[in-house]
Design a protein that fits this description.
Layout lengths: L2 H25 L11 H16 L7 H11 L14 H13 L20 H13 L3 H30 L4 H13 L5 H10 L2 H11 L30 H7 L4 H4 L1 H16 L5 H22 L4 H14 L10 H4 L8 H26 L1 H7 L4 E4 L6 H23 L6 H17 L3 H19 L51 H15 L3 E4 L7 H28 L11 H31 L14 H6 L4 H8 L6 E3 L12 H4 L12 H5 L1 H16 L2 H10 L2 E6 L1 H7 L10 E6 L4 E5 L8
Parallel strand pairs: 3-4
Antiparallel strand pairs: 1-2, 4-6, 5-6
Length: 757
């Protein structure tokens, strides 16, 4: 194990944490920890934004400029195997960025063209790699662990701040949030374990109703496999953070998560800022959020719309009216003042306009990506719907927390809870008859959550404010005395400063509504692409964001139930019994969702490392599993720059294809058929045919295509010989043997010496 590299990267992250603290304190003055938990996420955001823009001039200078601005402002299986994930794509992008002199990097699977993929997370990883002075083969797993740690740390800090706002112990809320995002799984694993423990007849009946096949863990713990829990809802991918990191993909949907938490933190800070602090609120929502949102577009484009949705919900539900973001002369012209219905409509419309402005500004922050790197997609409607059983297995732990939490908030505000309960039961029953129970459940929770946000009045704020409640000098008198848009507002008082108590919904409810909206959205719409059938990839990339948002919300909500249940819910039971009940609920959730982590980590630790001892080396497996090609790949990896080569296309993906390009970052003419999704089927097939001609065509055709793609190396290994026979290039001027190995011959192409015809 390369412990020295571990310490080097740990030191790098600690330096970034320290460098980010002053800016975090500036951005989050009202959080009890002054934003310390979000410091690393902030540092990654600054490094990414600066690196993206400076990187278009020089990637070598980008990391140092980013660090300078920061200071001025204040794994189990390391192998990047192609099977069961996107490691070839991720490692290839990392290597390409380390080879590139500027942005955008050249596509290692489409020589001569820039990458058409959201590569921002890999860019940040490459900047960290340059700062640490580490080889990519080690940096891959170190960056993977770093992003995971940054996520858990950010969740701990922000969930703790959310809990502190509600008057619950900050450490409790932070720890629960960190648990949900870092350790917890969905309910499929405990569900299968219960099926294994149940009698055969009962197990078969329950599995049929829930839509679970009796396999793997349901047949006994010895049949457990970590992969099964990520494929619950038919035709979709249902990953959660622990699965993703155990699987070892340094993929966009994972690297974007700390930045998503940071964005949520910025919007939470906005919601705490009094109406009178106009310029601070404007700086957050029109300055910081678009900058991070633009970076997220480059890191993981799927998250960019979520930034807009979060902005809409945060601005629309904040105590400060959205109209106060604009000059008073503009706000006074907006209709609806003095009328509650029209005032609510005005609040929604203005919040939508603010979200649209954030999107526009975010596009400006990432304009080179949209003009040259982003690939087009279309949206389709009405995909196959998720079953109620599937939704409950994937999201049930979170939904249980939120149903109890929202019920606890709602009952004291309902005059006749029995009548409301009957109406809700009838709605669910009708939805079940038409096969839309899951949709009805999510829709009802969204309506309840938003209604609570817009009708609950905090009333008296705790006498003792949070540790950082008023350090920016805003004072408690800066809040608006009433909402000029006619909404309910919070009246006079602190404008969001201090603790509000357990009976008032806060930003945790905003995060829950945002996540529920995403889950509901993919029941009706999906992005049409070639990454998988129908909505498979849409659900995959959307649910990964939902898990992050709901981990934050659940940490604060569950901690509030356990520690600050309040007297309103007694309903014939003593406060002590309610406290006991909520603690039992918390214990059940923690234990049940920990089963997967225990089994999966035990399974991973129980394996004998293929390298003989634990290692961070992502390429150590090549010499063991593919010794015939390992020397040739290593030879190629020592070449400088990004010379183009040709090798057999990876038309069958998730196999040992295009390894020379994926493991070195040297672009090949046609790589994995992922390029179909990026550039179109016809364009990719044309290149595949050109590669076939280079290996099998007439000499004049070979020369023409070698010139067309500016090829410098021709790779002839086992896969090329299987596909094209006994390939030789002797007799063509300008083509010579660069290096010959037992199973691989690499030809060098001198473009200046190739014949004219």
């Amino acid at each position: 194990m390369e412990y020295g590299l571990v310490l080097r990267w740990l030191a790098l992250y600690l330096v970034m944490l320290g460098a980010g603290l002053p800016l975090a304190a500036l951005a989050f003055p009202r959080l009890a920890d002054r934003g310390a938990g979000l410091s690393i996420a902030l540092a990654l955001a600054v490094l990414g934004v600066v690196g993206y823009w400076v990187g278009h001039v020089s990637l070598a200078a980008a990391p140092w400029v980013g660090v300078a601005l920061l200071v001025a402002g204040g794994a189990f299986d390391p192998a990047v195997t192609p099977l069961g994930g996107e490691k070839f794509l991720d490692f290839g992008l990392l290597k390409s960025l380390l080879r590139a002199g500027s942005l955008p990097p050249e596509d290692m699977w489409f020589a001569g063209e820039p990458v058409q993929y959201y590569y921002g997370g890999h860019m940040i990883a490459s900047l960290l790699t340059r700062l640490a002075g580490t080889e990519a083969r080690f940096a891959y797993n170190l960056a993977l662990a770093g992003f995971y740690a940054a996520l858990v740390t950010a969740i701990y800090g922000l969930a703790g701040a959310l809990g502190d706002r509600l008057g619950t112990p900050r450490r409790s809320a932070g720890a629960l949030g960190a648990f949900f995002v870092g350790i917890a799984s969905n309910l499929s694993t405990p569900g299968r374990l219960l099926l294994w423990l149940a009698p055969d007849g009962v197990a078969t009946a329950v599995a049929g109703v829930a839509g679970i096949e009796l396999e793997r863990l349901a047949r006994g713990p010895e049949h457990f496999h970590y992969w099964t829990a990520s494929r619950v809802i038919e035709g979709t991918i249902n990953e959660f953070p622990l699965f993703a990191w155990l699987n070892g993909d340094l993929h966009a949907h994972m690297m974007s998560t700390p930045l998503l938490v940071f964005t949520a933190g910025l919007l939470f800070s906005y919601s705490l800022t009094p109406a009178g602090r106009r310029w601070r609120r404007r700086a957050l929502v029109f300055g910081a959020v678009p900058a991070v949102g633009g970076l997220l577009a480059v890191v993981n484009t799927w998250t960019f719309p979520t930034v807009a949705g979060l902005t809409f919900l945060a601005v629309g539900s904040a105590p400060a009216p959205p109209a106060t973001l604009f000059p008073r002369s503009v706000a006074d012209r907006l209709p609806g003042e003095g009328s509650r219905p029209l005032g609510e409509l005005r609040r929604i419309v203005v919040a939508g306009a603010v979200a649209a402005a954030v999107v526009a500004a975010g596009v400006v922050w990432s304009v080179p990506f949209w003009l040259g790197t982003a690939s087009g997609r279309s949206v389709s409607l009405f995909p196959s719907r998720s079953s109620l059983g599937g939704l409950l297995l994937v999201h049930g732990a979170f939904l249980l927390v939120f149903v109890v939490y929202l019920t606890r908030l709602s009952l004291p505000r309902i005059d006749d809870p029995e009548r409301v309960g009957i109406v809700l039961c009838l709605l669910v029953a009708i939805a079940a008859l038409v096969g839309a129970t899951g949709v009805a459940l999510l829709g009802a929770l969204i309506v309840v959550g938003w209604a609570l946000l817009r009708t609950a009045r905090p009333g008296a704020v705790a006498a003792v404010p949070t540790a950082a409640s008023d350090r920016d000098g805003s004072g408690t008198g800066a809040a608006a005395s009433a909402e000029p848009d006619g909404g309910t507002g919070t009246g006079t008082g602190t404008g969001g400063v201090g603790r509000v108590g357990p009976d008032v919904p806060g930003f945790e409810t905003v995060l829950f509504v945002a996540g529920a909206g995403l889950v509901l959205l993919v029941e009706f719409a999906y992005v049409k692409e070639n990454a998988g059938p129908e909505r498979m990839n849409t659900v995959f990339k959307t649910y990964s964001q939902v898990w992050v948002l709901w981990s934050l919300a659940a940490g604060a909500a569950l901690s509030t139930l356990v520690w600050r249940h309040g007297p309103d819910l007694e309903l014939g039971l003593s406060g002590g019994r309610w406290r006991t009940g909520f603690r039992v609920l918390a214990a059940m959730l923690v234990v049940s969702t920990s089963i997967y982590a225990g089994l999966a980590t035990a399974d991973q630790f129980g394996r004998e490392p293929r390298t003989g001892e634990p290692s961070l080396d992502a390429l150590a497996f090549v010499a063991l599993d593919h010794p015939d090609e390992a020397p040739a790949i290593e030879w190629l990896d020592r070449r400088e720059g990004q010379p183009n080569m040709v090798s057999a296309p990876g038309t069958n993906i998730y196999q040992w294809t295009n390894a020379p390009a994926s493991l070195t970052g040297i672009p090949t003419v046609a790589g994995w058929n992922h390029e179909v999704g990026y550039r179109g089927r016809d364009v990719y097939r044309d290149r595949v045919r050109d590669v076939e001609t280079i290996y099998q065509g007439a000499a004049w055709e070979q020369v023409r295509l070698l010139k067309k793609y500016d090829v410098e190396y021709i790779y002839v290994g086992p896969r090329e010989r299987t596909a094209y026979g006994n390939v030789r290039f002797g007799g063509i001027p300008g083509i010579t043997v660069a290096e010959e190995f037992d199973a691989v011959t690499i030809y060098r192409v001198d473009q200046s010496e190739l014949p004219d015809r």
